[in-house]
Design brief:
By secondary structure, the protein is α+β, with helices and mostly antiparallel strands. It is built from 6 helices and 4 strands. A 4-stranded antiparallel β-sheet has the order 2-1-4-3, sandwiched between helices. The longest helix has 17 residues. It starts with 15 loop residues before the first helix and ends with a strand.
Length: 200
């Protein structure tokens, strides 16, 4: 018997156009599978999870200014006004002159000598008397009794105790500024020139 010839299946040839169409369709299928959700999942932060990102750190707060009720530094505290009932005791020697508001005194009832005395002459006399007191040559009370043009001369110049607003401004300021036992420089008021001694 002769050998039966083997049947060979015809080879399938792929047309170049069909191959191109198949490739394009495959690429489209891949592109379509990349959904936004998948894209988002691919971009998750390392560590995974859905925890929100930490909030940015708060900026350092500025210190709040102290409230008005906070105590101020002692060097910046305003000086307290003196008590309204504060009193001092003082004596004085008054020398009147031509500029005095009342040109008369127990020593010169007619005011003849007072009217002839200039302010500078009165101040020079007051300074000379003060020097005698400060040097210890004579006592304040004795000089006041002999030379003061005020009626307090009979009491050694003692005016007693007084508070603020009772004397002329310049006299009051000087008397309250003195320490007990101190004697002022020459002080000018409308009455004349004074030497003041604080006694209490």
């Amino acid at each position: 018997m002769g050998r039966r010839p083997r049947c060979e299946q015809p080879k399938t040839q792929t047309h170049p156009k069909a191959f191109l169409l198949l490739r394009v369709a495959t690429q489209h299928a891949k592109i379509g599978s990349e959904t936004p959700a998948a894209d988002g999942a691919a971009r998750k932060r390392p560590g995974g999870g859905d925890a929100p990102a930490p909030a940015p750190a708060d900026k350092r707060r500025r210190p709040e200014p102290p409230s008005s009720s906070a105590p101020r530094d002692r060097h910046h505290q305003a000086r307290r006004p003196p008590p309204a009932d504060e009193k001092v005791r003082a004596s004085h020697i008054l020398i009147k002159h031509e500029g005095s508001r009342r040109k008369a005194s127990w020593r010169d009832p007619e005011g003849v000598a007072i009217s002839a005395t200039t302010r500078d002459d009165a101040a020079d006399l007051a300074r000379a008397l003060r020097d005698q007191i400060v040097s210890g040559e004579r006592k304040f009370e004795d000089i006041a009794a002999e030379n003061s043009d005020c009626n307090s001369a009979k009491r050694g110049g003692d005016l007693g105790s007084f508070g603020r607003g009772k004397m002329q401004k310049a006299f009051e300021k000087s008397a309250f500024a003195l320490k007990v036992g101190e004697i002022s420089d020459v002080i000018d008021t409308e009455s004349g020139v004074h030497i003041i001694k604080r006694t209490g």
